[in-house]
Amino acid sequence: MIYNIKNNGLIIFLIAIISAIIFIPFIGNCPLFDWDEINFAECAREMVVSGNYSHVQLNYRPFWEKPPFFIWLQALSMNVFGVNEFAARFPNALCSIVSLISIYLAGKKFSSIKFGVVWSFIYASTLLPHLYFKSGIIDPWFNLFIILSLYNCISFLNNPQSQKEIINAISAGVFLGLAVLTKGPAALIIVGLTLLAYLIWSKQLKLISNKSFIVFITTTLLVSGSWFLVEWLSGNANVISEFIDYQIRLFQTEDSGHSGPFIYHFVILLIGCFPASLIFIGAYLRYKNLTPFQKLFRKIFVCLFWVVLILFSIVKTKIVHYSSICYFPLTFIATIGIVNYFEELKFNALQKILYWVISILITVAFIALSFISFLKPYIINSGLVKDDFALQNLNAEVNWSGYEFIIPLLFLLATVLIFKSIQQHKIKLLYYGLILNLLFINAIILVFVPKIEQYSQHAAIEFYKSCSTKDCYVETHGFKSYAYLFYSNRQPKHYENKNQKKIIEEILNDWEKNGISRLSGYPGANLYWMEHYPIDRPAYIVSKQTSEAELLSNPEIKKLYSKNGFSFFVKLPTDTAK
Question: Given Cys at both, which of 12, 389, 436, 539 links 414, Cβ 3.0 to 4.6 Å?
């Protein structure tokens, strides 16, 4: 095993190379998925097209929902690799290398080389953490910065009055500031509540007045406030106020229809991080023989886990990646069980039932998906699916070889080996199981995900791409999307028509009186102008078939065709629009 190597530099090099081999190839083999992936990629594309890197834009208008750090990374990647899926996902592929090396080094500091290697191995071979490294969303970098901030907090809390105390405090502040610049003030809340919970638990609240804490807080404010200060000095104070208003609204209301029950994130972690989640449960109470430093380390990670899980269970907006920071403490606790208490680790009766229920459900779900071309007539006619749009998506012609069912069998074999390793205390079986799980995850991403994309959005993406070479307008009707902006290659000139600007501003002013923000209302206002006013270039409109009636009733708009649940329309320009 790699942890038998004594050369620390060689281990870091091997982790970097293995991570690059696992996470970089084929990340551009599937279109970006709508909403978060395409949202951020579009903001980066607009930076590249406009040359405006000072603040984030969408529809070439200020976009105040996210700070710029991750968008800068994507824009840099697009300047190197071009505007494409690979460039949008490449920053997170790099994040996989940095994250796994960081996990190794933190694990080595916590216990040993073996602990660091095993922790990074478990993290990489767990479904959701692995999947995020091959995505184009913000969270991998955001999570990494928070973990690095807390790790440096652990360092100065463990060694007060040491030579590196102030350096650790500054480092903790820099990383927390970068987390804020990546995703926003949620980083301050998460780290602040985690440290507060730890200090209360440890009865050390007086440490808040220490100079290291003051340096940490000051550095955090300087780094996190740098971009906001530049925006304010540039006359963009409105962007800052709208950004803060959005963050508050996100905690208070269900955003973009993303709601769910209180236990939503508990279920996501249980299934999405399986089988590490079950090992986490089995290992959670095993810590009595840890050293004082190890207990401090563990306490902060336990506090992080519960702060994030409870906080985002309370928040009304429920999105999978909100609890993604929990992947670090979850796999950390699981690693403690494997490395420190493996001979004592066993599942009780309830855990065994839960283990096999989840294992069988996941296996059956993917096997059923591999035979979807045979099952879809029964699904369509069964009446079990009430969503007409989803039923129409199933009409997509997707090529299944018939051998895809072998992939979920890899997962089933992995779960058998991991279960036997826990019950029989055979560590090699655990490693073999994790390797098979790693192969399963890669096969799912390479084989299943592109096919799922063909059912869900491919017809629309295909149409948007066909518009990218045309001088035209593009908008969606009846559903929200960012895909048409990215894939139809919208340019600043598509927003410069004087009549368009005037009418849209009038509509937005009217809507704003009714509580609709100018940013979220812009696509609707643009669509209304395209549908009801003279236009100077062709306007292509994409609708779900279930909501096309209004477009069909407009005599100026002609239907082109329907495909897999989407309908495509065009409105031709008129001379009076010029």
Answer: 436
Residues 6+ away with beta carbon under 8 Å from 203 = none
Other beta carbons within 10 Å of 460: 25
Rounded to whole angstroms, the Cα distance separating 183 from 176 reads: 11
Instruction: State which H helix or E strand residue 219 sits in.
Output: helix 211-233
Q: Is 578 a residue whose pLDDT tops 70? A: no
Measured in degrees and rounded to the nearest 5, phi and psi for residue 33 equal: -85, 140
pLDDT tens digits, 138-168: 999 999 999 999 999 999 888 766 778 899 9
551 and 543 Cβ atoms separated by less than 8 Å = yes
Question: Quick one: pLDDT band at residue 247, thresholds 50, 70, 90?
Answer: low
For 328-346, b/e burial (b = at least 16 CB within 10 A) is bbbbbbbbbbbbbbbeebe
Inter-residue contact 326 to 269 (CB < 8 Å): yes
Contact 312, 265 (CB under 8 A): yes
- Which of 180-184, 373-377, 433-437 bottoms out in mean pLDDT, i.e. has the lowest? 373-377
- Alpha-carbon distance of 100 to 103, in angstroms, equals 5
- DSSP 8-state class, residue 33: P
pLDDT at 189: 95
Distance in angstroms (rounded) separating the CA atoms of residues 245 and 225: 17
The pLDDT score that the predictor gives to residue 480 is 92
Residues of the chain with pLDDT > 70: what percent?
A: 94
Would you state the torsion angle of the CA atoms of residues 319, 325, 329, 331, taken in this order, to the nearest 10 degrees?
70
Radius of gyration of the chain (CA): 25
By CB atoms closer than 10 A (0-12, 13-18, 19+), residue 496 is: exposed
pLDDT digits (tens, 9 = 90+) for 300-345: 999 999 999 999 999 888 899 999 999 999 999 999 999 999 999 9
Judge contact between 63 and 47, C-beta under 8 A. Answer: no
- Spatial separation of the C-alpha atoms in residues 303 and 309, rounded to whole Å: 10
Query: Measuring CA to CA, which residue among 120, 126, 129 is closest to residue 415?
Result: 126
Contacts 24+ apart (CB under 8 A), 342-348: 342/425, 342/427, 343/425, 344/286, 345/279, 345/282, 345/283, 345/286, 345/422, 345/425, 346/282, 346/422, 346/423, 347/278, 347/282, 347/419, 347/422, 347/423
The tokens of 330 are what? 């979850």
Of 335, 426, 303, the residue nearest 112 (C-alpha)? 335
